[in-house]
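Justification of computing resources. Each target in the renewal requires a structure prediction run like the one illustrated here; the chain below, 134 residues long, is used simply to show the kind of job we budget for.
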Amino acid sequence: MKDTLKQGVTTTATYTVDKDRTIDFMGEECRVYATPSLVRDIEQTCRDLIMEHADQGEDSVGFSVQITHMAPTLLNMKATITATIAEVDRAKVVFDITANDGLDDICTGKHVRFVVDVEKTRQRLQAKAAKAAA
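Resulting C-alpha cells:
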C-alpha cells in the first residue's frame, strides 16, 4: 500500500436509504435504515478509501465493526458516512466512523480492515476449500 494511506485521511460517501436497505418487520410505515445495511455501507466506504491508496494486487478485508446506531433514517432519506483513518499499523487500518442523515447524527463507531494481497488470499481460500471438501 502507498504511504499516502495514513492517519487523518478522510472520505465521505452518501447513500440513499432505498427499500433494500431498510427493515421490514414493523411494516411499511416503519421502514428505516437497517443496521446491517449501515454496516455494509460503512465497510464499502472504508474499502473505497483504502483502494484509492492500494498497490496493484491489493484489496482489503473487514476485521471488526463497532458502531452505535443512534437514530432512525427513513426510507428515501440520504445518509452520509464519514470515515477517517485513526491508525495505520502495517496492514491494519483503523477508521473512526460517523454518519448523519441531514437531521440527526445516526452513527458513531470504529471499523478495522486489513490490506491483503489478493493472490495470497485466493490461495489460502482454495486450500481451505480443499480441506473442507476432504
